[in-house]
Design brief:
Blueprint (H helix, E strand, L loop, with lengths): L1 H40 L2 H32 L3 H29 L1 H5 L5 H27 L2 H9 L1 H21 L4 H33 L21
Length: about 240
């Protein structure tokens, strides 16, 4: 009877971690979506909400980490169960960072509010965020299914976001060269675009963690990359 109680309590611990990861994931998605919407529309109130919500994300990551440590100490899990717990810590860290990137984007809203965001650049930022958020949503779905095949497929798609970011980077440089008055606002927008591109990287990190949780091994080969923004203009 005592053994049944122990296993039940252990199962509850794992379910707690899984539930909290899912909650963090949903909040991270909302923060990024709201941050981009606030940026494009100049909504300072929505931006402030995103900034305030970051505290909740920080507390959630800390709570998951503390629960994971206590679970390891009490249950002394082995093999797949240990990977499950350690994976939760890693995924929580990535999601907390996604929240930070949403917050950092929201902080730029006031800086670009006066000049506004040119419609063409706004569409580019929205498209980039749609790609990043789709990848984040899909990887959170894979977290539920624990499919290594789907995790690997998401990992292989990281270059799509990189390519979109590079294209947007070039477009913003063009705006700055055409009119020096655009330099300040476009510089802020470049930081926002980089924040969004980094969200895709964190989604890929989560995919790699899920692959490890499911298989016990790391994905083979380097992840695909197509971010050439650092070479733009180098040979032109």
């Amino acid at each position: 009877m005592a053994s049944t109680h122990i296993f039940s309590a252990y199962d509850d611990d794992l379910k707690f971690l899984s539930r909290r990861i899912s909650e963090m994931g949903g909040m991270a998605e909302q923060m990024v979506s709201d941050a981009v919407r606030a940026l494009v529309s100049g909504d300072a109130g929505l931006a402030q909400k995103v900034i305030s919500d970051d505290v909740i994300m920080d507390n959630s990551e800390r709570e998951i980490g503390e629960k994971a440590i206590v679970t390891i100490a009490r249950r002394q899990p082995m093999a797949s169960d240990l990977r499950e717990i350690m994976g939760s810590i890693r995924i929580a860290a990535d999601l907390e960072r996604v929240g930070d990137l949403g917050k950092n984007t929201a902080k730029r809203v006031i800086a670009v509010q006066a000049a506004g965001v040119p419609r063409k650049l706004a569409r580019g930022l929205e498209h980039l965020s749609e790609l990043a958020l789709l990848q984040l949503k899909e990887v959170l779905d894979v977290y539920t299914s624990r499919s290594p095949e789907k995790a690997e497929a998401i990992r292989q798609r990281d270059e799509e976001i990189d390519a979109m970011y590079t294209s947007l980077f070039r477009e913003m440089l063009t705006y700055m060269m055409e009119d020096p008055r655009n330099i300040t606002s476009c510089t802020h927008l470049l930081f926002c675009a980089k924040n969004i591109e980094r969200i895709g990287d964190h989604a890929t990190n989560i995919a790699e963690t899920i692959y490890y949780m499911a298989t016990g091994s790391q994905p083979e080969g380097d992840r695909p990359k197509d971010d050439s923004a650092n070479t733009v203009g180098a040979s032109e």
